Amino acid sequence: MNDTRSRQADALVEGLQRDAGGKLTVFLGAAPGVGKTFRMLTRAQEQLRRGVDVAVGLVETHGRGDTAALLDGLPVIPLQQVDYHGHRLQEMDLDAVLARHPALVLVDELAHRNAPGSRHERRWQDVMELLDAGIDVWTTLNIQHLESLNDVVMRITGVRVSETVPDGVFDRLHDIVLVDLPPRELIERLQQGKVYVPEQAAQALQAFFSPANLTALRELAMQEAADRVDSSLRETRAARGEGNLPLRRRVLVAIDGSGQSEYLVRVARRIAERRDAPWTVVTVQHRRQDEATRREIDAAFALARRLGGEAELLHGPGIADALLDHAGHNAVSTLVLGRTRERPIARMLNQTLTQQLIQRGAHYEITIISTPQARARARRVGLSLDTGSWAKDAGLAVLATAVACIAAWLGERWIGLSDLAMVFIVAVVLVAARTRMSAAVLAATLCFLAYNFFFIAPRFTFAISARQGVITVFLFLAAALVAGRLASRLRMQVVALRAANRHATLRQALGRQLAGAADNAQVAHAGRAALEQALDAPAWVRLAGDTSTSGSAAPGDTDLAAADWALRHGQPAGRYTDTLAGADWWFLPLLDGEGRAIGVAGLQFGRQHPRLAPEQRQLAEAMADDIAQAALRTQLVTELETAHLHNETERLRSALLSSVSHDLRSPLAAMIGSADSLSNYAEAMDAVDRRALLDTIVVEGERLDRYIQNLLDMTRLGHDGLKLNRDWIGVDELIGSAARRLQRYQPEVRLSLDIPADLAPIWVHPALVEQAVFNVMENAAKFSPPGVPVQVRARQQDSTLRIEVIDEGPGIPDAERTRIFDMFYSVERGDRGRQGTGLGLTICQGMIGAHGGHVEALPGRDGRGTLVRMTLPLLTPQPDPAPDNG
């Protein structure tokens, strides 16, 4: 039940993602002339009559009058004029279509190659941008232009189609319309001049448009349409929760750069498509690869990405081990690989790649693919080898054999060494540790022959006089081969481990730098530095929402256009891609977990790098993922801090509203009541009553003024800060002024002042420090029992002044003693029996802190009451610098 719901949810999500942008409808035909454009325009006229906003982005009529007549009444967006080598070419104006933004646009010939200088190299890329903009697109396509069928069409027609469309474009497909015409009717239309002009028609009938070719292409078109309909039906049933569809299993295709890589990629795409399975192209880097091999693998990886697959570089000492390990960890069900060269010895020992996979991959379906080109090449030269590299390795084997002969002769003559076989085995091991296995076998053979010729009696012949000698030399050969094999495998493992260790070290260093990044600017700086160090190329990083950029080199206008495209579409752009390939930079989008681009990273490789090595691409993509994850982390931290600040603001706002509604209302109510009594009954009152009411108004007004002043002071502390206008004032004068203010407001309060007469004046802001002392004294008076004095004591200790206010009230629990300086603490605590807003001590802490001091709450004497200590540093004014009269 859970699996069914999961599949239903996946299908619904895929449907929503496909419907998020515009809808793509393809009018598919087997060949030119079957009526695709005519059918598309006919249906467009029907949509126009229904009130749909239809526009023509580009339609090729090829001079056909009946097709051109269907354009009447359809809004046509003017084409863009492009000058190229003295010729004026017309292309679809992509920007004009985006600005017009119709509900439906017609774009003919999806596989067309745009004129040089256009934004995209191919028209299908223009269509993808229109779909991303939310515009429905109708387009036409012939089956031979589908990328995965390129080799199949080549075998059928003998013509290699250069303009192709990646199969991944069909993943955006909303509807497919098969425009079919029997081959004989198409040939009749061709002969009547309804497809091409007579000269072209005669040439086409002799080549491409033969009945056999058209029948085969028609079958391919029908099969493609049926596959798409079947895939749509499966998705629909899965979205409804119907049927018991099997789990999707991954198809893995292995390539080695031996000349058939792109063919294998296309075959794997067709296999995966028929099985509705994801697919991955891999290559195992187990030995040093020449430049031609790297170029072929790079091209095959790029083709796989265009066709909607994934590409990955594997490391390992053996191809079979690496493939089976990757398959076991990635839910692979089918292994696709090309036919490998079957060496006689390896075949007898069951050591070919095919035999190893068949023996060890019991749980996998293994598909072996071969081509006529591969078989012909295997007959001519076997597997493709780098001649120069093989000559170098062979020379090393010969040199090692010669050195071993000299060392054995010297050891036998001067040292009396009898076991000379070990000298030659060491030579074989050294060759195997530095070259490929074939060179090690050559070294073992040469050492075997040299050992037999020079050191086995009778010497200087290959004849062996004793049976024991025969056994000795053949055991030597076996030992040399085994040692060479082991040394070669060890070398391959070391090479693979070095590459993997380098990648892991670079990513670990990047992780350490990104771990300390607190914002997007620091993430971009750390990512740029790590990319430059890892790939030895100038790097550039920009994160969305951050106007600053990080990079030692600045991309140009064309490069920035590629960067913006990569950021908007979440796909690589610039150099080494099909989008704005004229740029000097290669841009990678920084993707979040849902495929949205949150930034872009760029790398500028020199012109000496016409191709990007697969390991460089893999490392750059992995590091880009790490940078994106770090940016997401900083974004999440920022959002959490913002949410925390918002919650704190709401808490303080609620406390403030509570304080204003209660504490400020009390003096207002007393003032209004007294004023109302004076207004209505003043003549009936005697002078004493009137004076009492006036005193109430004055006292409550002053109390209200103190509350408002506290709120204003708190605002100044929290935003603009306090500006200190320091002056000299005596400590007794400062505390005495605060005591007189308190007794004026609360005459019943008793104070006990302990201020030594010899205290020196202090250099402070008098009004602020007096306000701080007043707030502490007022707070102590609120909690002191009636008739018990509040003690105020001042002492000088070292270079500080301590002012202590002691009450004998209920005291403060240890757990809450540090919180009394929090804003609105008394309000939050719910102590409504006391008057005040809970701001007094907070303001006191801010004012004393502005002077460089601090405030702390301690237990009172004998554990009763509270002692609030204010500590101020004793500073002196700095003399102004003397004027320069020179």
Compile the SSE list and pairings:
Elements: H1 2-19, E1 24-29, H2 36-49, E2 54-58, H3 65-69, E3 80-84, E4 87-91, H4 94-100, E5 104-107, H5 123-132, E6 136-142, H6 150-157, E7 173-179, H7 183-191, H8 198-206, H9 211-240, E8 250-254, H10 261-274, E9 279-285, H11 291-306, E10 310-315, H12 319-329, E11 332-338, H13 344-348, H14 353-360, E12 365-369, H15 372-381, H16 387-415, H17 421-434, H18 437-455, H19 467-515, H20 520-535, E13 539-543, E14 550-551, H21 557-569, E15 573-574, E16 586-591, E17 597-603, H22 614-662, H23 665-681, H24 687-718, E18 727-729, H25 731-745, E19 751-754, E20 762-764, H26 766-783, E21 790-797, E22 800-807, H27 825-828, H28 840-850, E23 854-859, E24 866-873
Parallel strand pairs: 1-6, 1-7, 2-5, 5-6, 8-9, 8-11, 9-10, 11-12, 19-21
Antiparallel strand pairs: 3-4, 13-14, 13-17, 15-16, 16-17, 18-20, 21-22, 22-24, 23-24
Structural class: alpha/beta
- Number of strand segments: 24
Largest sheet: 5 strands, parallel
Low-confidence spans: pLDDT under 50, at least 5 residues? 243-247, 342-350, 378-386, 827-837
* SS strand fraction: 5-15%
Strand order of the largest sheet: 2-5-6-1-7
The averaged pLDDT comes out at: 77
- Head-to-tail CA distance between termini: 94 Å
Helix percent band:
40-55%
Number of helical regions: 28
Q: What gyration radius follows from the Cα positions, in whole Å?
A: 43 Å
